[in-house]
Amino acid sequence: MNKYQKVDAGSVITRDGTIKLHGPDGFEGMRKAGRLAAEVLDGLVPHVVPGVTTSDIDDIVRVHMLREGGIPATLGYRGFTHSCCTSINHVICHGIPSDKKLKSGDIVNIDVTVIVDGWHGDTSRMFLVGDVPIKARRLVDITYECLMLGIEQAKPGNYLGDIGHAIQTHAQQHRYGIVRDFCGHGLGQIFHDEPEVVHLGVPGTGPELKPGMFFTIEPMINIGKAAGKILNDGWTAVTRDKSLSAQFEHSIGITETGCEIFTKSPAGLDNPPYS
Ligand code: MF3
Ligand code: CO
Ligand code: CO
Q1: N or C: which end of the chain has fewer CB within 10 A?
Q2: Per-residue pLDDT tens for 114-137?
Q3: C-alpha to C-alpha distance for 201 and 6, rounded to whole angstroms
Q4: Which residue has a Cα nearest atom 4 of ligand 1?
Q5: Which atom of ligand 1 is least distant from the CA of 94?
Q6: pLDDT of 191-243, one tens digit each?
Q7: What's the 230 CA to ligand 1 centre distance in angstroms?
Q8: pTM for the complete prediction?
């Protein structure tokens, strides 16, 4: 079982297996980082159109982050050489930006993580490219609802299992597959930290949620089966049955009364349609 550890501006930060409980300086730091991450996604809206390449998107992301004093957290992270992940259609996550062009009918997840003054803002949204079939739009809508239903459970006194359970229940109502191979994660001054945030669960189980906990919720939901595999590039995770996959991600902090979403879109563009 995880132990908790109070941390503040003076603490030495390592990944030591504890769940960190941050103070007001942590909330300040995450607010700034989360806001920039959300603004980067907001800025992509006019660019995610048929004909654009995912490496064009990667360039826009990198330039925006650096211009605003942020550092792309994924650039050089475990050998990843890009500033975002672009996961198209049956790609579950960790799609690598390339010279591949987006085409009408694609759904694409763009996942950005920026470091501002040492704090990590991690968020992703689905973008609809041109005319997207109703089946795909439904998957995107339900996946966003899964994220928000999970966030509704994020309050002191609840358990991590309550979040997973809310997501699982909604996805299963629509007979979708819930990816188990990737999870949300604690974050703050570390990109991937404790706790592991599984997108399925049993109510009342797992670590208890306490004020000052920071973590992401980032459900990956498939129209078909849950099973995935990693391509030979070592990163790209795809559905085994080639079915479409969607994901949304927010970074949140547990407060005394509920939670604060650090990566909420200042422009109100948290989910499509964006215009
Ligand atoms: N942003 C992803 C997450 O939500 C992590 C991407 S790591 C990368 O945790 F190296 F693939 F970019
Ligand atoms: Co994340
Ligand atoms: Co992310």
Answers
A1: N
A2: 999 999 999 999 999 999 999 999
A3: 26
A4: 122
A5: 11
A6: 999 999 999 999 999 999 999 999 999 999 999 999 999 999 999 999 999 99
A7: 14
A8: 0.98
